[in-house]
Amino acid sequence: MTVWKPMTSVLLAALATATPTLRAAETTAPDGKDPQHAVRLGAISVTVQRIDDSYTRTDARGASKTDTPLIETPQAVSVISDVQLRDQGVLTVQDALRYSAGVRSDAYGVDSRGDDGFLRGTSFSQYLDGLRQYFGYSYARTEPYTLDHIEVVRGPSSVLYGQGTTGGLIALSSKQPQSEISREMEVQIGNHARRQLAFDFTGPIDAYGHWSYRLIGVARDADAQMQHVPDDRRLLAPSIAWTPSENTRWTVLGNLQFDRNGTTLNFLPHAGTLLPNPNGRIPTDRFTSEPGFDNYATDQRSLTSLFEHRFNDTWRIVQNLRYSHDNVDYRTLYPDVYANPANPFVDAAQREVTRYSYISIDRHRRLVTDTHAQADFDVAGLHHRLLLGLDAGRSRTDTRQGNGVADIPFDLYAPVYGQFTPPDILPAPSSVTQQTGIYMQDQIEAGQHWLATLGLRRDFASIRTDGSDTLKDSATTSRIGLMYRFTSSIVPYVSYTESFQPLDSLDFYNRPYRPLRGKQYEAGVKIQPVGSDSLFTATWFDLRENHRLAPDPQQPLNQIQSGRMRTRGVELEASTRLARHLDLLGNYTYTDARPDDGSIVAGLPRHQGSLWGVWHVGNDDADGLSFGIGARYVGDNTDETGRLHLPAQTLVDAMVAYSHGPWRLSLNAANLGDRIYEATCLARGDCFYGPRRSVVGAVRYRFQ
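-> structure tokens emitted (704 positions)
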């Protein structure tokens, strides 16, 4: 806890010193031009944040690594813009995914350990600025205030990324330094004792526009939905960009993030949550661990380099690299509902359970890099955009662990804490994971109508665990996509993609997993009316996954590889703006997942849908009031056996905001009706409550 006061001092010092530093840069260039516009970027594109942008974004690069419009990308992609993040008042990356097709966000309820969920019926990988972000299941969650936008890339993407699941990936893009001055401060106050101060300063450093900076800070003190669980954060994210010419840009981003949280995943029994219990419902804020012992603390330090240079009209090179050092201190207790799921209670009154304890103290050191060259040229009447790349990653994890059984039964209805002796903490085997991939992609344009994408990749992966032999694997993955442009606004497509996912984490028993393999067939149509802020997508997919991960029925902190699964589905998604007054988002997802062992994917509904709209009383970019409301429908689902049925839920979100000059006042509510529901129940014996109502008010002030 000693890190809090120094970090708060750093944030306050940054606030005090940033303004005079920037004013000193506001001079006139020797040529007489405004220094903010002394250099105009041409070949290197930089996204300037604007508060009057619509929800529809078409400049995403996650699915192609090139500046290809989404309507010309043979893959389903959703883009969550900075405007949507702001309007919906998202508090986590997981919150941001709630209105995207194909995603089951909050799949395991309130889980402070990560931003997990389902994407096309399976888990997803997460990338930040084109580089894989996390390895293993314990990590520091990304602060959404540092993000410019989020891309949901649905379906396998291993040809470009190597390390991606069959379901797809979440590609996060950081806010970067801008050549125009923009400064803001924001204060948030909400339920669960939430208090947050954040700032975001960016602008030029020198008088000629060659250098620019950005400084983002967050200080938060809050509680979680569960009793005795904090949700505190201190973050400082400085970055600097060098743009010596219109053809070159080099950005370096730092991140210092210190979280002091606890565990909110409480593994409650079926009786008392989904099923009746003579004592009634177990409270949704019930804390099953121990105050003073329970912990989920993460210290993250990372440095990212993003370099881009255009040699001429044909060749361009991009080189990205990140080094990160994370420490995770994870300590928890959870009820033993697994030995006898039908009756986990140790007393006749069905109140008391035995608890397991678990400790994992991890140190992660990771280096990831991706270098690719792009060539644009014409041959025999065909235009080619050729991408040649090499990426590599190395992750080392050193671990100390402990586990045991608490001797004294725990009363879920009237808990008594302080009667627990922590287990001994012992060294566990360290592991080193390495992966190298070589890839090629060619985007071909033939005439006015035909577009084709061809991709091929070769991966080499290894994992070495102390005391075990080094496991090595290699794979070749491919990608084929074909599109036909009927008009500039209607483009149908078909595609075939493959995935290869080496898992560098170990299971609960320190055994390595086998790589995941998958393939997918996809067909769809994209419609983007000319001159409108709209994008409509309809998609059908059929994917197969081998060596999939599933919950271990014997150990809640473990996952097992349970064979193959076939998933088919349909996704409909729309983003539009009407008459400069109304922004609308809508989607519907049908998913039919069938594991070959005859089981069911727990917590995965066949039907999902959502609708979100914001009405601007004036218009989209004028001062005044805005009102928003959204509804999220999650269809009924079951456990793995189909015997436990969870009813369908419709959750309502709302917002109201008022803008006047540099000021913006907003109030956001998620799960407005405070609906109590079980997000998922598993056959092994546990259920997980969904998030209760969240209400957050914010005041933002922008200045120069």
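Helices lie at 4-25, 82-87, 93-96, 158-161.
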